[in-house]
Structures are given as C-alpha cells and as structure tokens.
Write a structure and sequence with these properties.
single chain; about 350 residues; mainly alpha; Ribonucleotide Reductase, subunit A; 14 helices; binds fe (ii) ion; Ferritin-like_SF; oxidoreductase activity; AurF/CmlI
C-alpha cells in the first residue's frame, strides 16, 4: 500500500500541465534555447592565429579572482612558472566542468525517459542536454589545445560518476539539487573572472562567455523545477532534504573548486598555501559562502531552512544570508557572449 502511494506520488511529481505559470516558463526557456545557442566549432574560430596557444603568453597567468591567482606565493613565482600553473589550473577547471556535465547529461536522459507524453519538461531537458553536449566538446577542445594533461575531478568522484546519474529517475529532487551544486560554483567563478576584466587568453574568454550565457537558462530551470516541488513534499522528506542539501553543496563544490592532488604535487605547492586557499583564510571562506547565496534563498523560500538545517549549513561552512533575488549581490549582470 505504502509502495503504491510512493509510486503514485512519484508519477504525480512529473505531471505539470495543470500549472500554466510553470509550463509558460518552460516554453520560454525552450524557445530561448532555439533562438540563442552556440556551436563549439562554428562559434569559436579555433584555428585563427589569435587563438593559438603559444609559449610564454602572459594571458595565462591566473586572474586575481582566482584564490591561487591572488596568493602571494603564486605571485612570487617566476613568470614562466605562473604561466605553467595558470594553464594547468584553467585546463583542470574546464575538465572538471565537462566531467560534471557528462554526469548531468546522463541524469537528464534518465529523468526524461520517465516523463509522460506531452510533458514540456521533456523538450527542455533535451535542449539542455544538447547544450551540455556542446559544452563538453568545447571544454575538451580547450583542454587539448592548452596541452596540459589535466585529470579534472578527484579520483573517487570520477569512479563514482557512472552511478550518480542513476538517482535522477527515482529521486529527481536530490538530483536537481546536485545539478545546482555543480552549476552554481562554476557559473559564479566564471562570472567573477569575466567581470574582473583582466586580459584573458581569447580561448578562455570566448569559452567562458558562451558558457555563462547558456548556463543562465540551466540554472533557472533547476531553481524553478525545485521551487515547484519542494513546498508539496511531505514534512519528513522536506526535513531530511533540508539536511542533505548543504552537504551536497559543500561536497560537490569542494570537488569542483579544489584542484586535485596531482596539481599540488606537479607544481610543488607548499601544503600551507593549499590549506590557506581551501579554505582556511577569511577571504577563501567568504568566496566559498558567496557561491551559495541563491541556493540559500531557494531553501529559505521553500521551507528548507529550519534550525537544524541552519546548523548543518554552518558546519559545512557555507552559511550566510540568502540572496534577495537571483544573482545578487555582485552578480547583477549576466555577461553575454558577444
Ligand atoms: Fe554547461
Ligand atoms: Fe549547464
């Protein structure tokens, strides 16, 4: 009996046609994907001379918005070394991004395969997958051209990655929180770098601008998906979820933002520097907190912030005030791909 109820609830979760506001939002996002999309090989002129990766190009030096880039240890290194580290670090961020997107695509496929006929979510999930496929090609091309053999995520996560998308079918809500845990930090860091205005290598600049422009839709979808479902969850489930969310945010963010062990070894970076950067110094703590203002807002608005959940956010060191609106505070504008 309980099982039938569970299955019924799971099916009902996928019926959205009676919610006009939600279906209109999905239609807008889908139309946006048709009108404004990028192809990694026609919208980026990889073979033009200005895109060439050449030795001693200072534009690969890490920007000050990167925690390592602004660290005195990094800044005291000889220029060639700063360039080498910068190339590896930026290639690794792209590799992590594409590995995360490969998980996301597989999850979206799992979820979409259960959707009933006529569901507008089907179309949008597929649009998003197409865009993510393009992003993975774009990021891999960038890694190949930089020429640093970046491993991406920590090894444990790479091994776990085939299993994570399996939850998207039976447990879409925790899955979409996982999506936010990956997309928010990547998007936040890319926007910060673009806004800093430092002269970047054209590959980096173009790839990031395209990515930020398309991610805006993906993040909107994940937020709206959750906003629609969370308030109707049974109390107990909502409570469990409220404790699970900060943990997922912290764990995934850590995997995405912190370079893997091989990076520190390869460049012989002192342990102290690593500890300070991730996340002992006050600036790095703030950087960590700032990434999740929008998720805290989502949780506060949908009944996922109770005293114990707040404590959990604090233990995970990502507590703080919720944003007042999406992309607040310094993130007021979305940098559009030219
Ligand atoms: Fe993406
Ligand atoms: Fe995305």
């Amino acid at each position: 009996m309980a099982r039938t109820r569970m299955v019924r609830r799971w099916r009902r979760n996928m019926e959205v046609l009676d919610d006009t506001e939600y279906t209109t939002m999905l239609a807008t996002l889908s139309e946006g994907s048709v009108r404004r999309n990028f192809n990694p090989y026609t919208d980026i002129d990889w073979d033009s001379p200005e895109f060439a990766v050449v030795d001693n190009d200072k534009r690969w030096i890490l920007p000050a918005t990167d925690p390592l880039g602004r660290h005195p240890w990094y800044q005291a290194q000889p220029v060639e070394r700063q360039i080498e580290i910068g190339k590896f670090r930026q290639a690794n961020v792209a590799k992590v991004g594409l590995q995360f997107e490969l998980i996301l695509i597989r999850g979206l496929m799992n979820y979409a395969s259960w959707l009933p006929n006529g569901s507008p979510e089907y179309r949008y999930c597929l649009h998003e997958s197409v865009e993510e496929c393009n992003h993975t090609m774009m990021f891999q091309e960038m890694v190949n051209r930089i020429g640093a053999d970046a491993p991406g995520m920590p090894r444990v996560l790479r091994w776990l990655s085939p299993f994570i998308p399996l939850i998207a079918g039976p447990l879409p809500i925790p899955f979409f929180f996982g999506v936010l845990a990956g997309e928010e930090p990547i998007d936040h860091t890319q926007k910060m770098v673009l806004r800093e205005g430092k002269s970047l290598h054209p590959i980096m600049e173009r790839v990031m601008a395209i990515h930020v422009a398309e991610e805006a839709r993906h993040i909107s979808f994940a937020h709206e998906y959750l906003r629609k479902r969370l308030p109707h969850l049974p109390r107990r489930q909502r409570f469990l979820l409220s404790l699970h969310v900060p943990i997922v945010m912290r764990v995934l963010c850590q995997a995405i933002v912190v370079p893997p062990r091989s990076f520190w070894k390869e460049f012989d970076i002192p342990r102290e520097v690593r500890k300070e950067l991730f996340f002992r110094s006050p600036e790095s703590r703030q950087f960590l907190r700032d990434m999740f203002g929008d998720v805290r807002m989502l949780c506060a608005d949908t009944g996922l912030m109770n005293p114990i959940a707040k404590l959990m956010w604090r233990i995970c060191k990502i507590d703080g005030p919720p944003s007042r609106y999406r992309s607040e505070p310094q993130r007021g504008h979305v940098v559009a791909a030219a």
